[in-house]
């Protein structure tokens, strides 16, 4: 019994102190479920996520074939749920002005350490709270974070002719509240002009890659 009480008090104390820390770091207090998301990602990044340290091959391919050709002297970029900022840092090294937004303070701290020498504007916050000004970015990146409701905000924030690049895991099994379903992405980006699209199912899941332009 004593052990149970001790555990409960420890848990509540951690939640309270997390709440205080969140209020100090974040623009807005986070809900309990978002605090759990933040804790989860902070923990993962503290342990190390080496697979997210270097730019993704699809991003590099699209950068070389389309993005750099559309914007030879760089532009403004928004990297949503940027993690360690692998794409923001790459863009900053290629004359771009990137803004990286992520809920994990640990990820953003590591991003800043890696980005020494180049300029990446960073924000620690829930992207749902990020106020995207209309027609303010030449390029928006959304990699491995999915939120259906966020897509219209992204398109509104792109400048005319601006590019949207995304890579997502999807589920091949129809289920309620599934993150993203097979063949769903195309419907979500139907207002854009498609430049590149590939969906690769692997058993009951898969990966989808997309680059499109606002017309
Ligand atoms: C799989 S990682 C991908 C990171 C990065 N996009 C990349 O491809 O390297 C998912 C990221 O989403 C962030 N994230 C999760 N929920 C978020 C939210 N509501 N707002 C902002 N970032 C969030 C996590 O902190 C984590 O950095």
From TrEMBL:
This protein's name = Methyltransferase domain-containing protein
Q: What keyword terms does UniProt attach to this protein? A: Methyltransferase, Transferase
The record's Gene3D superfamilies line, in alphabetical order, gives:
Vaccinia Virus protein VP39 (3.40.50.150)
Any keyword Methyltransferase? yes
Q: Which organism is it from?
A: Chitinophaga oryziterrae
CDD domains on file: AdoMet_MTases
Q: What is the lineage of its organism?
A: Bacteria, Pseudomonadati, Bacteroidota, Chitinophagia, Chitinophagales
Q: Give the GO terms filed under biological process for this record.
A: methylation
Report if keyword Transferase is assigned.
Answer: yes
Q: Which Pfam families match?
A: Methyltransf_25
According to the entry, every stretch annotated as the Methyltransferase domain falls at 78-162
InterPro entries the record matches = Methyltransf_25, SAM-dependent_MTases_sf
List the GO molecular function terms. methyltransferase activity
């Amino acid at each position: 019994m004593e052990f149970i009480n001790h555990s409960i008090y420890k848990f509540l104390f951690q939640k309270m102190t997390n709440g205080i820390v969140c209020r100090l770091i974040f623009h807005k207090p986070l809900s309990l479920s978002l605090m759990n998301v933040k804790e989860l990602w902070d923990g993962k990044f503290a342990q190390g996520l080496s697979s997210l340290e270097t730019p993704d091959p699809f991003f590099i391919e699209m950068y070389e074939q389309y993005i750099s050709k559309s914007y030879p002297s760089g532009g403004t970029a928004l990297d949503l749920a940027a993690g360690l900022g692998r794409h923001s840092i790459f863009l900053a090294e290629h004359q771009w002005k990137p803004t990286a937004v992520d809920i994990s303070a640990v990820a953003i701290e590591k991003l800043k350490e890696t980005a020494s020498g180049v300029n990446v504007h960073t924000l620690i916050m829930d992207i749902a709270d990020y106020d995207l000004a209309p027609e303010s970015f030449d390029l928006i990146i959304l990699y491995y974070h999915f939120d259906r409701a966020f897509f219209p905000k992204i398109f509104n924030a792109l400048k005319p002719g601006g590019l949207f690049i995304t890579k997502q895991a999807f589920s091949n099994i129809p289920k309620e509240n599934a993150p993203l379903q097979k063949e769903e992405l195309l419907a979500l980006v139907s207002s854009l002009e498609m430049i590149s699209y590939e969906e690769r199912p692997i058993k009951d899941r898969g990966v989808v890659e997309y680059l499109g332009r606002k017309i």
